[in-house]
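PROTEIN ENTRY
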Amino acid sequence: MYIHIGEEILVRTKEIIAILDKDVHSSQYIQEFLQHNEKHTENLSKNPFKSIVVTKEKVYLSPLSSTTLKKRTQQLIVMDF
């Protein structure tokens, strides 16, 4: 299954490692992680991003909130059954 994370980007749910709220961006560890993965980071938001989606290949800065993305993944899980 795939989840829409913003703009025209669909990500395979099996590829998602973490969905983080924007508030964790203030963490020193997250800032270091984003700097380390800068070449593999794609900002999908024209405004300040609302969540960070970490996949096996890329890091996405999403305009959608982590709550919205969580609901979408839960809907997909229910649909799988």
Notes: The radius of gyration is 12 Å. The mean pLDDT is 91. Residues 6 and 62 are 6 Å apart (CA to CA). The first helix runs from residue 28 to 36.
